[in-house]
Amino acid sequence: MSKGFYYAEVVAVEQITKHMVRVTFGGEDVSEYVSIGAPDECVTLFFAREGEDRPPAMTEVDGEWWFHGIEDAPEGRNYTVRRFDADSGRLVIDFVAHEGGVAATWALNATVGQVLLWTRPRSWYNIPATAQWQLLVADMTGLPALGRIIEELPSGAQAHAIVEVLERGDKQEFETAGDVTYDWRFGSGNGDSASVLEDAARQWELPDGEGYIWFAGEAASSRVVRKYFRKELGYPVTRFEIIGYWRANSEQWLEKYKKYQEEALAVYNGALAAGRSQAEASEEFDAMLERVGL
Ligand SMILES: Cc1cc2nc3c(=O)[nH]c(=O)nc-3n(C[C@H](O)[C@H](O)[C@H](O)COP(=O)(O)OP(=O)(O)OC[C@H]3O[C@@H](n4cnc5c(N)ncnc54)[C@H](O)[C@@H]3O)c2cc1C
């Protein structure tokens, strides 16, 4: 059984592109990290609270690892495991350096020796064995997962990547055994201006044969892209993973969401209880939020 949470110590910090900070973690816990092997593997990082040098430990209650009994639990944010090397016990996370936010501010000031806590990993990317091609669409938050997906493609796998970054200095190169084409978009989305990912995904001519779509970017864009594949093209939920990785103006959105949270969760749980899959329940959850303007 893997550990319920891990402490991780910063061992290196590097600015890899104009707006991306790479932090390498090590330490005793990291060498015990159990990867789930999926290329979009993600952990929730928790940051030390004011005046403390590391987050408090989690405890397990009824199978749930959390900061039980701690009133002001530390802030947590989701990040992709860009790379994990079990032999050296090193784990790499790439942070988008955007303005504001606990995580981005932490990354911009990260120093060797600082300690974070993170949870067990989760993942979504799940390409059916029958898929003949894949379309990968990401903004800068999805770039670490997109990079890992491309690097881990089996020989000859066909993929087209549409990536939106802030500027040319944010472009990255990936080594791959796959057969990959790229469409880099510069200077849009990413909190700077409107995203062009929705249009770019729509304009790409879909190849013949069964395909798989993976999208990671801003939540409102993800909704538009999901509707295109699901409603306009009639894709079944097994043929895409279209995920909101962050939300523009999240403070205002969260304020409004609090009013509808209970109702939305009831819709989600009701759908699961009625035998629908998690993906279908998420669709009903999202449709309910859209009806109330969220
Ligand atoms: C599965 C998953 C994997 C992810 N992997 C990564 C990853 O590897 N690297 C990565 O950098 N991010 C990743 N993200 C996105 C990251 O969790 C969010 O961007 C998160 O909101 C950042 O937290 P923060 O504390 O910096 O900002 P928050 O406190 O959440 O937000 C502060 C303000 O910044 C805005 N904001 C948040 N993120 C961005 C952004 N990227 N650009 C511009 N404005 C922003 C918000 O709207 C808000 O106004 C991932 C998300 C998910 C769900």
Could you give a quick summary of the protein structure above?
By secondary structure, the protein is α/β, with parallel strands linked by helices. The protein has helices spanning 28-31, 102-108, 143-151, 197-203, 219-232, 250-273, 278-291; strands at 5-17, 20-26, 42-46, 59-61, 64-66, 76-80, 83-85, 90-96, 115-119, 133-138, 158-165, 179-186, 211-218, 240-246.
CATH fold-level topology of the largest domain: Elongation Factor Tu (Ef-tu), domain 3
What are the bound molecules? flavin-adenine dinucleotide
Net shape:
globular
Compute the separation of the termini in Å: 39 Å
Structure description:
The chain has helices spanning 28-31, 102-108, 143-151, 197-203, 219-232, 250-273, 278-291; strands at 5-17, 20-26, 42-46, 59-61, 64-66, 76-80, 83-85, 90-96, 115-119, 133-138, 158-165, 179-186, 211-218, 240-246. By secondary structure, it is α/β, with parallel strands linked by helices. The protein folds into 3 domains: 5-119, Translation factors (Elongation Factor Tu (Ef-tu), domain 3, Beta Barrel); 133-246, Rossmann fold; 250-291, no CATH class. Strands 6-3-9-1-2-8-7 form a 7-stranded antiparallel sheet. Strands 12-11-10-13-14 form a 5-stranded parallel sheet, sandwiched between helices. Helix 4 (197-203) runs parallel beside helix 5 and helix 6 (250-273) crosses helix 7 (278-291). The protein is globular, with a radius of gyration of 19 Å. The termini are far apart. The model has no long low-confidence stretch (mean pLDDT 96). The site of flavin-adenine dinucleotide has 25 residues, from strand 6, strand 8, helix 2, strand 14 and helix 6. Flavin-adenine dinucleotide is lined by residues 42, 77-80, 94-96, 98, 100-104, 141, 144, 190-191, 245-251.
